[in-house]
Structures are given as C-alpha cells and as structure tokens.
Amino acid sequence: MLLTDLLERNAGNYPDDVALIELNPIRDDAENLRWQEYELVEMGHDHHFRKSLTWKEFNDRANRFANLLMDRGVKKGDKVAILLMNCIDWLPIYFGTLRTGAVAVPLNFRYTAEEISYCVNLADASVLIFGREFTGRVGEVLDELVETRGFIFLGMDRPEYAESFEGLIEGYPPVKPKVTMTDSDDAAIYYSSGTTGMPKAILHTQASLFSAAVTEQAHHRQSKDDVFILIPPLYHTGAKMHWFGSLMTGGRAIILKGTDPRWVVETAANEAATIVWLLVPWAQDILDAIEDGRIDLDAYDLSAWRLMHIGAQPVPPSLIRRWKKYFPDHDYDTNYGLSESIGPGSVHLGIENIHKVGAIGKAGHGWYTRIVDEDGVDVERGKVGELIVKGPGVMKEYYKDPEATAAALKGGWLYTGDMAMEDEDGFIFLVDRKKDVIITGGENIYPVQVEDFLRGYDKIKDVAVIGIEDHRLGEVAAAIIEMKDGAEATEADIMAFAEGLPRYKRPRKVIFDGVPRNPTGKIEKPKLRRKYNADSIVARETEQG
Q: What would the mean pLDDT of 494-514 be, rounded to a whole number?
C-alpha cells in the first residue's frame, strides 16, 4: 500500500469530515494573508484566521496539483522541490507530488539563497514551488537553478518568472492520475541538518514513507476521534510523520502557525485537541507562562488532551517532572529518529514507561537496535557505544553520495552517530552525538549528561555544553547558560551547583548567552563552537603578543 492510498481511502470513507485546519494568529504581517480565504475567529485573548479542508477537498486538491505538474511535463522519477512555510496547502502539494510518481523534495525555510541553490541543484529538481517569504532568496539564485524549468508561486505578489498556484489549481480536474507505482519507487528527498557543512540529500522510498504511518499509529494508538496539533515545520520528517498517525485513522489535525504558549493552550482547549507534539523549548515556554501567571489553566477546558510527546532532541527528565506537576493526567512519550530513519520512532519510550523518563526507550514498532564499538561489535550493557538501527524506514541512500552512504549503511544497519548506553532493563539512554563528545585530558565528557544536570537549577531556562580549545587539556567543557526572564545568577552560583557532578564532568567555564536552536529544536552547537572557539583563539593570540 502507498501513503497516497490512505488519503484516497479517507476521502472515500469520510468525505465531509474535516481533515486539516490552519490557524493563523493575527500578526503585523496580517495584511499579506489571502483574506478572502480565511474565516476570522475569536480565540481567548486573540483573533485567528481559520481555514479548513475536508478529506475529499484535501484529496481533490492533491489530484489537481498532480495533474498540474504532469501538464508541466513532470513524470515519474522527476524531483519537485517545496519551499513553503507551514500552511494548509503544504500537504496537498506534497501528496500531489507523490501522486505523479515524482520525488518530493521539502526544503528548510531557513535556507540561505546559497543553500537553496545547492539543494535544488543537488536534487536535480525540475520544478520549485515556493512562497512569498522566499521571493528574494530564489530571485538571487534564479540563474543558477539550471535543471529547474518550472516555478510555481503560492501567495500574493507573484514574481514575473513564476506561475500562480491559486490561478492554476482550480483549472485542473480532481481526478487521480494514472501512474503505476510500487513500494520500492523513490518517493522523497529530505535534507540533513547540515551541521558539518552543506546538507546531505536523504533518499526514501514509497515503502519507507508508508512505514512511518504504521509506526506512528502503533506507538500512539490514534483513533478517528483524536485531534492532533501540528506546530513544527512540515519540511522536516518529524512533524509530518507524526501527523501520519492522523492520516492512518482519518483524524483531524490543526496546523498552528505560531508557538506562543498561550496560542498552544487556547488552541488545545478550543479545538478539543487530544495530542500535541512539542519541542523542548515550547514545552518550557508553556511551563514558564503557567508559573509566571500569563496562563491560568483554570480558564481552559483541556480535558480532551491525553498525550504530550517530544522528539527531535534529548529531553531533560526535570522538564517532564515539571510538566506532570501541572498536567498529571497526561500520557507522555518521546521518540528518537533521524531523517535517515524517517522520523517517528526507530526508538520509542512508550506511554506506559513514564517511570523511565530520561531514556529514549527501546526499538520502535518494526525496528531493531544495537549499541556497538568502533569495530561494530556489540558493547556490554551499561557501556557507551554508537547506536545503530535497522527497520522499514531506513533511507535508501544519500543521493549522489556513495561514500557517505557506505559509511552510514553497513549490512542493513544505519549508523546514527549518536552515543548511547542500555540499562539493565533494556532501555536506551542517549549520551550524546559522537561528534559532540568532549575529550578533556583523556576523559570523555558527554554534554547531554551535564546539560540535564544543570537544567535542575531552577533559574536556568536552557543550557548547551560545548568543548572549548585548551592548550593543556586539548579542550574543556564550557556551559552556555540562558537564564529565565528576570532571573539572575553568577558564574560562581553555577559552579557551586555543578559540584553535584563528578569533578571531571564539571564545566570549566560558564558563559551567559542565548542558546540557539534550529526549527526542529536541536541546539546549534556548531554555531556555538565556532563562536566561542574563535574567541579563545583570539584571546590566546593576544596573550602571546
């Protein structure tokens, strides 16, 4: 079965049921919205624009877009790049692309013009569909996109070199194209975070995408009655693949365009949401807003909300203990996955395992895990090694990069680059990224362990631990500390708290600064390492005269 078959099935079984809702809070750029297409609704303290699609409308729109693409010469195996902010048309465009047999290529909305050019050309994308936010960046590299023969624009103020999505879409029939596809066909290219250079292109098959839907629904037991709030960017595997659980069951989903904690809580109440997938910073923001009085939980009916789950990054146990204080009846889950392993849970804690908060869990539905040394030999339980995974959602390859593919895929196993250990009960604990391990005086320091400990200091909002060059020890651990609003602490305060750690794990330096995170919530440690190692080099050169 193909992922697009699930959409067709839902359109047949639940044609008039709402599939997708876009909620867009009024902001300073509200005049740029397509006003006539949205309903203005009141939500607590704000007004939001609201637009919805039924399952039949969703399916019809995907078919119309597929026929539009095929009329532009797109055929099976071609690549279609998608550069859009989250919106209600994102998923119909994605599914319409898959319906043609073409390969969908979602692009990070934070890409620079240079990165857009690189990724579009690496994928050999023949069509690029993009939104108003990207007109300037696309225009900068237009002449560089040598393989791209079609440009489709979504929104107002269309550039002259592109065709209008809105002006074209209704002119095509809502009929499913006659394209023969199999599970083994190429389906999507996702890009890695690019933390060590330009992003790698990760190629997945139709079977891989479908497996994500099966895995997600098995983990979180979605039913037709579940209502899912979708906040993270759709270009990433995480948000979309978790929504696949709604696709499996015909449930409703809300695309919320904004992360303000009050918007999240008000949307959960007004839409009777049952499942909300959050990133660590958003969960922290909600808790901060509750504790400083900006959110009064008694003002909202959140009785439908059954599950809060987090993925994409290590989750501090202190955060979940704090969450359960205000939401004691919530189930909690965390999932571990990579874009190379299609997102929603190659490792999975499980809602029944709240007592193991801090672990990422055990092998997910249909998956297998091992923890190995540098020779690929399994390590003993309790020892740190590299986590490797095998399952139905492992990528086919790094597109056009056989060397990187060979390094990551060995004997059917995906080498994740994450250091982990397994406890006596078989639960896996993520220790750190292999490349983030700090080696100081011959001792390995795993930053995540130090970060989890420091987050127990109640004035700290966020923390990142990185290695800073040291003439004597090679590198030492430095803690980048972001304080809660209005809170104050000194370096001595942090160092005193850190005395609860073994001596070799204690940070040698404390820096008060913001902790940058990417759109999927991961700490941008390469950016911090570049910033503060550059500072240390300058300081050393100054000392040397």
A: 89
Q: Do residues 310 and 279 lie in contact, with contact meaning Cβ atoms separated by under 8 Å?
A: yes
Please report, to the nearest 10 degrees, the dihedral formed by the alpha carbons of residues 51, 53, 57, 63 taken in order. Answer: 90
Residue 484: partners with Cβ closer than 8 Å, 6 or more residues away: 288, 459, 460, 461
Task: Identify whether the C-beta of residue 386 lies closer than 8 Å to the C-beta of residue 376.
Answer: no
Cβ(147)–Cβ(170) below 8 Å:
no
Helix or strand or coil: residue 227?
A: strand
Q: Which residues contact 420 (CB under 8 A, 6 or more apart)?
A: 360, 371, 384, 385, 386, 387, 428, 429, 430, 431
How open is the CA angle 459-460-465, to the nearest 5 degrees?
155
DSSP-derived secondary structure for 481-507: EEEPTT----HHHHHHHGGGS-GGGS-
Query: Cβ neighbours of residue 157 under 8 Å, at least 6 residues apart?
Result: 132, 135
Tens-digit pLDDT profile for residues 264-322: 999 999 999 999 988 877 888 899 899 999 999 999 999 999 999 887 666 778 888 88
Burial class (CB in 10 A: 0-12, 13-18, 19+), 146: exposed
Please give the structure tokens belonging to residue 131: 């939104």
Cα Rg for the chain, rounded, in angstroms? Answer: 24
Beta bridge partners of 412: none
3-state secondary structure 31-50: HHCCHHHCEEEEECCEEEEE
The answer to whether residues 514 and 483 touch, using CB atoms and an 8 Å cutoff, is no
Question: Rounded to an integer, what distance in angstroms lies between the CA atom of residue 346 and that of residue 337?
Answer: 5
Query: Length of the chain in residues, anyone?
Result: 545
CA distances from 73 to 67, 76, 82, 283 (A): 10, 10, 17, 45
Rounded CA-CA distance 472/322 in Å is 40
For the chain, give the percent of residues with pLDDT over 70: 89
Secondary structure of 258-325 as H, E, C letters: CCCHHHHHHHHHHCCCCEEEECHHHHHHHHHHHHCCCCCHHHCCCCCCCEEEEECCCCCHHHHHHHHH
Q: How far is CA 452 from the centre of its chain?
A: 21
pLDDT score, position 289: 92
Contact 264, 276 (CB under 8 A): yes
pTM: 0.82
Distances (CA, A) of 343 to 125, 235, 393, 463: 23, 12, 8, 25
Residue 254 and residue 230 in contact, taking contact as beta carbons nearer than 8 Å? yes
Amino acid at 195: T
Distance between CA atoms of residues 167 and 154, nearest Å: 9
Phi and psi at residue 522, to the nearest 5°: -75, 140
Tokens 């199999």 locate to: 182
Domains and CATH numbers, the chain: 439-543 (3.30.300.30)
Interacting residues of 143 by C-beta distance below 8 A, sequence separation 6+: none
